Amino acid sequence: MPHRASQAPLAVCGLIAFLSCAAATAVPAGPVVVIAPPRPADVVDLPNLPDSLKFAVIGDNGTGEQPEYETARQLWNFHQKFDFPLVLMVGDNIYGADRPQDFARKFEQPYKPMLDAGIKFYASLGNHDSREQSHYKLYNMEGKYYYSFKAPKEDVRFFALESSYMDSTQLTWVQNELEGSKEDWKIVYFHHPLYSSAQTHGSTVKLRDVLEPMLIRYNVTLVLTGHDHVYERIKPQNGIAYFVEGSSGQLRAGDLRRGSPLTARGFDTDRTFMLCEIKGDQLNFQAISREGTVVDSGIIMRRKPQK
Amino acid sequence: MRYQIASLLAIVTLAFGGDAAAAQKPKSESTRKKPGVNPDAQVIVDFNKRITAYVELHKKLEATLPTLPKEATPQQIDVHERALAKLVQAARADAKPGDLFSPGMQVIVRRILGQVFRGPDGRQIKNSILDESGERAVVKLTINGRYPDEVPISTVPPQVLLSLPKLPEELEYRFVGRHVILLDVHAHTIADFIDNAFP
Questions:
Q1: What is the pLDDT of residues B138-149, one digit of tens each?
Q2: Which fold has domain A3-301?
Q3: More confident site: B115 or B64
Q4: How far is the C-alpha of A262 from the C-alpha of B17, rounded, in Å?
Q5: I want to staple B166 with a disulfide (CB 3.0 to 4.6 A). Which of A7, A264, A293, B42 is the partner?
Q6: Smallest Cα–Cα separation from B81: which of A130, A293, A295?
Q7: Any CB–CB contact under 8 A between B68 and chain A?
Q8: Contacting B residues, span 72-101, partner chain A, CB-CB under 8 Å
Q9: Which residues of B touch A26 (CB under 8 A)?
């Protein structure tokens, strides 16, 4: 059986069907982010409700170097005040070699207190990650390069994508998963940013061409990415909130373009991580530096399907 | 909305207009020379046969190893990866560049890359790939050799993937600097490569 003969029509037909869907439905509009003033102090400026969904976000962390350890320690410090049960990883989980000793030095040791406390890490793969990391039990990927899972609280589904290899199989999966998801909150995370003001990589335009229409069409509220070694909150694009959280181990100091029209808030002078909390239709977030300074915070309201 | 549709139309156009897709694309009467004969289609059929043979071998060899669990330890992952690589290397000891990427297929791949890199944002895409995949790294590619640990795994733009023949999950197209490789994902080895494939 000629391989191409059976595959090409699938890819093309899928895109055409998708095109029809995109054309048929209007997009909810309007800003979704309300900016709260950044706090210069070491505080949890989140509701911290007992029955809310809490989670953390890290990206580009797996260096095995001192800043990764210090950022992880700060994340653990905040966990004492903000009891999140899960951490999303937006890729580049292990830089360089990934022998068993590298898993230990670049992941298991820096995050040991959290792993010991039963906090679950849900990884997506970055361009520095070998595909076989998907089998690593502490990444909870179950051998899949892309997957989705329902959050333990609130009506939330997370979608972890493999953004370095967005072939027709994955695009079809993304479309089917997003379309089939009935959860109120759809949160998508992957490595390459669709929007970024960093000078080193910037926006991944070709990926945006194929992904963004689906994110809009299927009512995704929040997109978390990394790759650029900065923190950036993007001004809402087509009603969707985008973040770059690529500085939980790596850092490219001064890499953000000053005055970029995309930036709602940027921070590129130290490592960071994010804390998020969802209750009902509201998501509160904070971005926190390695030193414990809150460098950004705000509220995102859930996108709702247009009636 | 207009933006989305324009973007999607561009994608579909590229997918249809890609050389690999040309096998399915009817030509106008004025340009048709030999009805039913398309050199690209023949090359792709041949490429797919080579890929199928490779994957059959890969599966046969992997089946001799303990199954890698979905929740594995780093040790299990490493042992499995390297054991499979050894088996592939032994079974393909005589393999050489071009065994999978035939000369005709290399022409097709170069043409598709040229279309993408000459298109809108082409320069940025090219620079991004070269930056990610270690343009400045001194990498000697060898058939069945382990993918170099120090070289990041490059992004392959979706438009390139939609234009090239789709691969089974055991293999991926990737870039190392200006070279295109076929990465054996489970063995983490280079099954074949095209030297300096970038236009």
A1: 678 999 999 988
A2: Purple Acid Phosphatase; chain A, domain 2 (3.60.21)
A3: B64
A4: 33
A5: A7
A6: A130
A7: yes
A8: 72-78, 80-81
A9: 1
Contact A9 B5 (CB under 8 A): no
* Alpha carbon distance B134, B177 (integer Å): 5
Candidates B27, B184, B52; CA nearest to A6 is B52
Task: State percent of chain B over pLDDT 90.
Answer: 57
For residue A24, what pLDDT band results from cuts at 50, 70 and 90? Answer: very low
**Nearest CB to A132: which of B51, B128, B188?**
B188
Q: What is the pLDDT of residues B169-181, one digit of tens each?
A: 999 999 998 899 9
| A118 beta partners | none
CB contacts, 8 Å: A171 with chain B: 158
Which of B76, B121, B188 lies at the smallest CB-CB distance from A130? B188
- ipTM score assigned to the predicted complex: 0.82
Q: B157 and A207 in contact by Cβ < 8 A?
A: yes
Q: Could you say which of B8, B47, B48 has the minimum Cβ distance to residue A19?
A: B8
Indicate the domain borders of chain A: 3-301
pTM, to two decimals: 0.85
Positive/negative CA dihedral, A216, A219, A221, A227: negative
Task: Tell me what pLDDT residue B134 has.
Answer: 65
Which DSSP string do the residues of A227-283 spell out, in sequence order?
SSSSEEEEEEETTEEEEEE--SS---TT-BPTT-TTEEEEE-SS-EEEEEEEETTEE
